[in-house]
Amino acid sequence: MRLYQEIGNQLREAIDSGLHLPGERLPPERDIAEQFAVSRSVVREALIMLELEKVVEVRKGSGVYVLEPNAETSATIADSGYGPFELLQARQLLESEVAAFAAVQATKSDILKMREAIELEKSFVAQGIIDESADELFHTLLAQASQNSVLANMVYELWQVRKNSRMWQGLNQHVGKRNYSELWLNDHQQILRAVLRREPKAAKQAMWQHLENVKSKLLEVSDAEDPAFDGFLFSSVPASLND
Q1: What is the C-alpha separation between 148 and 129, in angstroms, rounded?
Q2: Tens digits of per-residue pLDDT, 42-78?
């Protein structure tokens, strides 16, 4: 378990125990860092983890606030049984359209949050750390930038399904120590540039290509002879649907 996960777990336990109540603002990053004798970057990563779990909400310029507990989001999602390529096909259809919509709807605050997620990705790449939290954060923030909570929740739920899938976990074991973080970082930067320029078609294409790149790398490490392999059943989104 990484240090930021340990700090995140301790903060969650403090929230669950009632030390920090819903609606209450958490202490500043520097105070939490001093409390646990860690760097502020570790605290920031821990807060990102809690934000992804919908335990806290980070409000730019205001602070980090405890959210009301939600039984649906706090409960662990059972393994859906979906294969990795079926999930990727669904994500390619959904997130490409979400990216296009976000290019029209994104606010300055949304842009700043996505930039922070990319900066976190850069720090992981520089340290050679394989950690999907910043990757997930970018995708969920992009969906939130659509200003449509239904779309944002759909993207969030797909990530939860992915994380709880035994097939995905098995595939990650085959990936081993391969680190594609720099590739995904470059893809995310392309998507964000399109959003910044208010270019929905470019944002859609950049997201489509990003998930196509993910699929390509997964195919390289997949065992096509495995009975559970679903790569032949769920091909890339047809070009006619991506115009």
Answers
A1: 32
A2: 898 888 888 878 899 888 778 999 998 864 444 444 5
Strands 63-66 and 56-59: antiparallel
Which of 43-52, 88-97, 156-165 ranks highest by mean pLDDT? 88-97
Query: For residue 208, what is the domain's CATH number?
Result: 1.20.120.530
> Which of 13, 46, 72 is the C-terminal boundary of a domain?
72
Helices 200-221 and 84-105, packing angle to 10 deg: 160
